[in-house]
Design goal:
- This is Transposase.
- It holds the Pfam family DDE_Tnp_IS66.
- InterPro entries: Transposase-related, Transposase_IS66_central, Transposase_TnpC_homeodom, Znf_dom_IS66.
- This protein is of the alpha+beta class and 261 residues long.
- Among the domains are: 48 residues; 68 residues, no CATH class.
- It contains six helices and six strands; from the N terminus they run H-H-E-E-H-H-H-E-E-E-H-E.
- The chain has a four-stranded mixed sheet. A two-stranded antiparallel sheet has the order 1-2.
Length: 261
């Protein structure tokens, strides 16, 4: 990781220096052609992205050389990728209330189902917090800082409640995936290091391990499960695959026994 970050910084510095040199040192047509051949071929931008047309007309509709009217012949099209930052909106749920003069009762529509009924955020915010935390490896306190740039105050404790509620809601799905995995005859397993922030030790990070289990090929749709543990001992896959009698494929570092034994 440190090497890749270093290489990225070097590439950025080289590109910046090249841009400055291009401005200071004009090149001949032959040098321009050689430089263009050495550059990597630019891939076309994805076709599924929406296109926004921006028409740029000439400053004048007459030829600057002879003052004759210009005639349209074709369009020169250049595509440039633009990034539109994500933004927040506030959904206002208006529930008109109606009363029954006979029963003396008040009726209104029901709010949509929510895993945190009293929360002030929509499920889309909860989903984004989870993606940021587990997909982008962005801690909750860092997400709090990102959201604060949009003047949105989301306490870390509130986001922790979101993650916990989502985990509880998704636990039946995780259990189903686990049962499906151990129904397969072959499972591949491996572990990778994972830095875990320990708030009880002044915010210092400690080493953890993320165990990945993948069903064997040609045995139906792939099933992938993850199990976060504090170590890489063979006891973790043995416990997680308890009662399973299939074939476990590993790299042999810890040489776990057959969990089905």
């Amino acid at each position: 990781m440190q090497r890749s970050l270093f290489e990225e910084d070097v590439d950025v510095d080289i590109a910046e220096l090249t841009a400055h040199l291009d401005k200071l040192l004009p090149q001949s047509p032959e040098e321009d052609e050689k430089a263009s051949r050495s550059r990597p071929i630019r891939k076309p931008l994805p076709a599924h992205l929406p296109r926004v047309e921006k028409i740029i007309q000439p400053d004048t509709d007459h030829c600057p050389e002879c003052d004759e009217p210009l005639h349209y012949i074709r369009d020169a099209v250049s595509e440039k990728l633009e990034y539109i930052p994500a933004h927040f909106v506030v959904n206002c749920y208006v529930r008109p209330q109606y009363s029954c003069p006979c029963c003396q009762k008040v009726f209104s529509g029901e709010m949509p189902a929510h895993i945190l009924p009293k929360s002030a955020v929509e499920p889309s915010v909860i989903a984004q917090v989870i993606i940021n935390k587990y997909g982008e490896h962005l801690p909750l306190y860092r997400q709090q800082q990102v959201f604060a740039r949009s003047d949105v105050g989301l306490p870390v404790s509130s986001m922790a409640d979101m993650v916990g509620a989502a985990g509880a809601a998704l636990s039946p799905l995780a259990a189903l995936l686990h049962r499906e995995l151990i129904s397969r005859p072959v499972v591949h397993a491996d572990e990778t290091t994972l830095k875990i922030l320990n708030t009880k030790k002044g915010g210092k990070s400690c080493s953890g391990y993320l165990w990945a289990y993948v069903s064997g090929e040609r045995t139906g749709p792939s099933v992938v499960c993850f199990d976060c543990r504090t170590g890489r001992s063979h006891e973790y896959p043995e416990n997680w695959l308890q009662g399973w009698g299939g074939t476990l494929v590993v790299d042999g570092l810890n040489r776990p026994g057959n969990p089905g034994d």
